[in-house]
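Methods: holo model generation. Sequences were used as deposited, without trimming of termini or removal of tags, and paired with ligand SMILES retrieved from the corresponding compound records. Each pair was processed once, and we did not select among multiple samples. The sequence and zinc ion SMILES for this entry were:
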Amino acid sequence: MRVTLPIFFNKVPLTFKRAKSIISTHIDQYTAMTQRMKSFGKPWEIMATVIPILGHLERAEAVARFRLTTGHDFLEVYLHWPGTAANEACPLCGHVRMDGDHLLQCTGLVEYPADDIASRYWEARRQMVKKPSKGVG
Ligand SMILES: [Zn+2]
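and the model returned the structure below.
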């Protein structure tokens, strides 16, 4: 009967690179598993289970995707919830509800490609600063 011993009992010495790879793989797997469990049922569950935000993205695109995925996007629906914005309407086109989904159809952002959600997000934020929501005290 062959017994598999843990790495540290193995008689064959490991190189530093191989040991680092084994430890990193174990940590990545454990982290992914715990993130999936902790995010279950939450709006950002999709980040841990289906579509992780890739690490090689530019910061602006990564931030936009993170905000839109988690719902903490600082668009009118999000800003209206604590009373920071007067209503949920889009200040760019007048649509009744400005959230991440609306950015794909907003007529105020037609000069940006529909598949470039990061550019649309940042342009919407820029225009929102220029046209602040009215009626907030
Ligand atoms: Zn709009």
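The pocket of zinc ion is lined by residues 90, 92-93, 95, 98, 102, 106, 108 (CB under 6 Å).
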